[in-house]
Known about the structure:
By secondary structure, the chain is α/β, with parallel strands linked by helices. The chain is built from 15 helices and nine strands.
Amino acid sequence: MKWVNRVCIFVVLFAACGLAAQAQGKRKVIIDQDAAGPGGTDMQSILALVNSPDTDVLGITVLTGDAWRDEEVQHTLRLMEIIGRPDIPVVPGAVFPLVSSKEYIEKWESFYGKLRYKGAWNFARGHAVHGPYEIPPMPEGQPALKASTEDAAHFLVRMVRQYPHEITIYAGGPMTDLALAMALDSQFPELSKELIVMGGSINPQTDDPEFALSPSHEFNFWMDPEASHAVLHARWPRVVLTTVDISVKTRMEKDLIEQIRKSPARAAQYVAKYAEANFLWDELAAVAWLDPTIITKWQKLYVDVDIDHGAGYGNTLVWAPGRQPGLGEAVVEVQDDLDKAKFYKEFVALLSRPTPGRSAAND
Length: 363
């Protein structure tokens, strides 16, 4: 009997060591996202990262962008319930930009013309545009899961201090949370492993009216220009940028949705129910981080954001190496082209697979 007990103990310890080693081998990431929902680019990028067997998602920090923060937090909590990952903290971030505001931009528009898309300030899907603390009815149901009581900036700083040089920051929305974390701890950027950003627009080839006449205007950078400027001047070990230019080469067509629908996995059924045809903005940034071989062409550029409060307020500024002003701009690895078929294949596979960490009892 003693021999049997010892064998059992050995097996348990061996399994525990194996799980620990597996966790250590995964890529640590914090998802900083404006998480409008249900479905859509924000939620689908979250799913791609959470569903990857190679990631350890330490938390999801949520800030105002495509929708208001409090509404987005609820959508994110509900998504974590649906896919069986209540262990991933959902951490509330910034409600408002550092300097800009809905009211200020309305005055700005009286001088420089109307903007087509202003996120939470002028757009809502399935309900009326509302104020910052209102939560409209949620098609996917109200979550029972609660958000973290910690704020995003403190969470970000605490995590990079806990795991120095190990954490990738994936930023799929405005830069406010990151700028606030930098204000708390000036070493936050350099203690991170890298920054992966969906943002900026250089010269996209598209007839989309949002960009055709305003090629350097992009929502994530524009929503909080001062935060974007600060983040792009920080000492990150590495910055990767997925711009509008490459994003508009992709599309969430009905065929992709139907491929995902074939899977019985909770994540797949969620996407099949709520996805809509659109560019794969944040999804491309997420999947290309997981597999950089999707990107077939890169260029290194110096990137900044216009904070002069004139006609170009919030627009993307770009220089080739040697042409930059030399005022602290950081060199950025900009994605320029992709293997679209490979991207679509991996994207569908990620959203179709069972979510790692799910309890089989919940299926």
